[in-house]
Amino acid sequence: MNRVGYLLCILLLAFRVSAATQEASPTPSPSPQAVPTTVAPPSNPANDTTTKESDPFKVFFGPTLTRAKKTPAQAANFLLNSVNPYVEYLATESKPFFFDLEANRLDKETGNGAQSNGSTSAVDKASVPWLFGFAVEHGALTQSVSGNVITFRGNVANAIKAFVAKDYLKSYQMGSDDPFMKYVFSKISFGVSFNASQSTSASDSTSANASNPSQFAGFSVHYDIRNHRDPRDPHNRARWAAFVQKHEKEFSDKMLDFAEEVQNLPEYKAWKKGTIDAINAAMESGQPDALDNTMRDRLEEFKRRFQKELQPAVDKAVASMETYSNAKSAVLNAISASTVVSLDYSFVKQSNAIPNGTTMANNAPVTQGAIPDLSTVTLIVDAPFIKRADLTANGSFTLFNSIPGGSTHGSIRDYRLSGQADMHLPEIQNIGSPALTFSGVFLSLLEEPLGQTVKVNDVTIARTGNIGLFQSKLTIPVKGSGIKIPISFTYSNRTELVKEKDVRGSIGFTLDLDSIFSKSQ
Amino acid sequence: MRQQGPDYMVDKSEIITIKVEKNQDPYLASFSRIDGAAWLSTEQNGLIEVRKFQAPNVSGATVDFVITFDFQDPADHYDETVSGNQGGQVVVPIDPPALALKHHFIVG
User: Fold this and answer.
1) Cross-strand bridge partners of residue A475
2) Selection from A236, A180, A226 nearest residue A37 by Cα
3) Hey, which end of chain A has fewer CB within 10 Å, N or C?
4) Residue A305 CB partners (closer than 8 Å, separation 6+)
């Protein structure tokens, strides 16, 4: 697909959004959150205790048999030379090692999670333009609902690919060589929100979705200025190269050690010859299950004849698998903790995003046109701080899109700076790993909020002025109980923002032991 | 060089080339040590790695090594090409999941 094709797809999306907006009348929505484009690291397979298939033959040799059938010319090569399946098959207590760790990530990428199950009924209730429902069904967008506001989110590149390619694997590869797709579209994600409560009724939603002028609640655009958290990102090449040079090389050596132990067994040559003959016969028979049945029999014989003798070699090989797996997890964790810088713009159609009956600060009812729309620009930095700690910092400002009557500061409603450092402290024996968090917010509210509320520490702010809040929190887990004891400390220049149980002036302190007592009852 | 079942049959002193090519980042294939011979050359450039060794000059001698192919994405794919300077070439396509594949060469 060329650039013209991409642009046509975007224009189609934009046209549909624009048409719905014009036909509708405006509302606000909570700013749609940025769509995460980071690839989550896979779980550590060494710690993965779930095995769907309990038959060791199918678990460990299933993928090898698939390879063998796909390329019959290579059947004997794959079935006799694949080292790791033999190790795993003999290590009866071991867990699947090299299993397809990316399967879960694939599911996440295609947007088939709980929040984006492609249900047309949810789309009908929301009474949103048909294209969004269509996009959710095809995995181009994800959908979430918060109160009456339904938000559709997606990545521009992925949305285009999903529409065009229909197949995840093809869609992933599509446009991968196109710098325009790679460096521009893939870094942009978006969200569009609709207020379901504005729709006349669920029953007439299909016909009303384009004609009801009160649904569009807002949109957001998120651009990753710097984000190398995708393990496939070329910026991670050096990290992977170092991993391959050290850990994977060591692992390959250990696999060769095991293979040579097998090769040196006195009876192995006879077993190998018998197995080659059996594989050839199975392949020639053309029967679908012949190869599976043959290999099952041959491997049972292998186990019977060699397991005892090979046990020390198996134990060493399993240990190297675990070492390798842990090293790979460490690389993925480091990649997932690399610095991300992004810019977010959100537009809130205030009169559409606020529920009917909402009043303004002066108790006047909110009516269309009475309050200006809002634009918010946010710079987000998420970076590793010190060892075991992450730092997230946001800087933002919010503008009224039109200057409200009586304004003293023009169109700027507020500035906000906030930061949070999360630290995972070393594990305390018999207790667990406590988490220490420091967070701070500075808000300069220049104009009284009109419409959408301004909140700090979950408290609505109505008075203008500068607001500062600092909070630290130590969360101590109680091992094996599922209980966490939070100890927090808050300071603010406005006492109404301190929500601690014990408040002295502008300082609050909480030690919540209730959870322990409730557990013991 | 020719493939016979799971083994590669090679001529005395034949130079064997193994080329591993991946379709996308990250490159996660590695060679073990080589037993029975020595690497004549090893080159890696991005997603392509090429290694060469010379087979022993003794009939019945064997050369062994393992290549581990690991993956980070379901769309990842490797092509391994084994060829000899006396002729013969074998292409082995490798898709996920990860695999440690033994290579056993026998001098004819």
Assistant:
1) A435, A486
2) A226
3) C
4) A267, A271
Residues in chain A: 521
Cα distance between residue A6 and residue A400, in whole Å: 33
- Chain B interface, Cβ < 8 Å to A: 3, 5-6, 24-33, 35, 64-68, 70-75, 92-104
In a domain, A56, yes or no: no
CATH number at residue B45: 2.60.60
The CA dihedral of A432, A391, A376, A152, to the nearest 10 degrees, is -50
Does residue B86 contact residue B14 with C-beta atoms inside 8 Å? yes
* Domain endpoint, select from A176, A198, A229: A229
Residue at A54 is within a domain: no
Q: Which residues are paired to A195 by β-bridges?
A: A149
Question: Per the CB < 8 Å rule, is A77 touching B97?
Answer: no
Same domain, A252 and A315: yes
Do A6 and A79 fall into the same domain?
A: no
Give tens-digit pLDDT for A503-521: 555 565 555 555 444 444 4
Is residue A509 a part of any domain in this protein? yes
Query: Which residues on B lie below 8 Å from A232 (Cβ)?
Result: 24-26, 72-73
Of B24, B32, B94, which is closest to A255 when you measure between CB atoms? Answer: B32
Host H or E run for residue A268: helix A268-285
A370 and A484 together in one domain = yes
A467 with A387, same domain: the answer is: yes
- Rounded to whole angstroms, the Cα distance separating A161 from A158 reads 5
Please count the structural domains in chain B: 1
Distance from CA of A51 to the nearest CA of B (A): 15
Partners of A176 on chain B (C-beta within 8 Å) are 24
A136 and A73 both lie in a single domain:
no
- The larger pLDDT score, comparing residue B98 to residue A39, is at B98
Q: ipTM of this complex > 0.95? A: yes
- Interaxial angle between packed helices A156-165 and A3-23, expressed in degrees from 0 to 180 and rounded to the nearest 10: 110
Domain of residue A284, residue span: 61-98+235-335
Smallest Cα distance from B2 to chain A, Å:
12
Domain that holds residue B35: 2-107
Angle A83-90/A56-70 helices, nearest 10 degrees?
160
Strand B62-69 vs strand A435-445: parallel, antiparallel, or unpaired? unpaired
For testing the chain B interface, which of A53, A74, A81, A233 should be mutated: the one with the most B CBs within 10 Å?
A81
Residue B98: closest C-alpha in chain A:
A98
Same domain for A172 and A257? no
Q: Which of A256, A258, A328 to mutate to test the interface with B (most CBs of B within 10 A)?
A: A256
pLDDT of residue A390 exceeding 90: no
Question: Based on the structure, what is the number of domains in chain A?
Answer: 3
